From TrEMBL:
The keyword Oxidoreductase applies. Keywords: Oxidoreductase. The lineage of its organism: Eukaryota, Fungi, Dikarya, Basidiomycota, Agaricomycotina. GO terms for molecular function: oxidoreductase activity. Pfam families: adh_short (PF00106). This is NAD(P)-binding protein. The keyword Oxidoreductase applies.
Amino acid sequence: MKYTVKEILSETFSKWPAVVHADLTGKTVMLIGASTGIGLEASIHFANMKPARIIMACRSLEKGNAAIAKLEKQTGYTNAELWLVDLSKYSSVLAFADKFEKDGGRLDIVVYNAGVLPLKYTASPEGWEMTLQVNVISAALISLLLLPVMERTAKTHSTTPRLVIVSSGSHYFAEVPDVALQSPKILEKLNDEKYNTSSVMRDRYPLSKLLVVLFTRALSDHLGASFPVVAVDPGYCHSELRREIGFPLSALNKLIEYICCHPAEEGSRQLVYAAVGGSDAEMHAAYIALSKVKEVSDFALGEKGVEAQKRVWDELIEILSKVSPKIPSIVNQWGPAGSTS
Ligand SMILES: NC(=O)c1ccc[n+]([C@@H]2O[C@H](COP(=O)([O-])OP(=O)(O)OC[C@H]3O[C@@H](n4cnc5c(N)ncnc54)[C@H](OP(=O)(O)O)[C@@H]3O)[C@@H](O)[C@H]2O)c1
């Protein structure tokens, strides 16, 4: 579908749906990118549902501790744990996943909420453009590494875990550019420093959120009915996301945010809906916005999108298999690596 200006305006100025509530007794919820904004507010909603544990994955000890203090103060919940992870570094993501595997606990809900919106090209320590690294590649790596624990949880506790990755309504305005589709490797082309001029970087964030949609759909296809993998749009909210916008654009941004943005708490309700709302069947490969399953962009559904989805999946598996020797066997647990349907 297309996201029209009329629809954007009506969604922006509508009353957003209330938070859904579920019984999370005995369950473990993991929120990746929980230090601030929408992720912290979602953690607070989950805390009100009293799961056995909430793992709040943050990169900063100071911000993570402050987030837990806020959650405890608002909810009285005392089983939130701070786990440090820097999603720009493979070593940190691998250590995080390893720690969880050794922990041996169950894992019912994973919400990958972390995201960045840099306006200029910067490379991660791994040599990937930072938006690709944090919003897409680390999301895929951590998701794949946690799949066996979620699968084990499903079998041991006769439950259906959910994996939620935060996308954005901005994905409706993105396309994988022809120059990348015509290159042997899509992600490699998108990562080319010379290609990443300031005008290309302006479109990088929506493109990263389209890549998230393509990855969640490919992973859902690959996992079949095992458990739902959901992409979610929290909606346009106040947060620290646009922190890198410099003056004078920041002044205009502040004005638009003042008029259009909802509080981060309201956006966080969508993460909660994707994690515990609806039925497992309707959540399969779903894209959630305003507590409804919504069709993804025409690009994602069209010929080029379907081709990009398959190629991006294959490339991610190839890249990540070099990062962790566990990836091929994890992927093969649900069928051959290249299979997404
Ligand atoms: N706000 C909106 O209007 C909107 C709309 C649609 C989608 N979204 C999406 O919603 C999600 C949450 O964003 P937000 O608006 O709440 O923005 P935010 O306030 O900037 O929160 C982003 C979160 O990601 C974490 N993060 C970023 N880079 C990281 C890294 N390398 N390692 C570990 N954590 C990292 C941040 O940690 P630090 O605190 O340490 O930086 C923070 O917890 C993002 O995926 C965003 O793209 C937001």
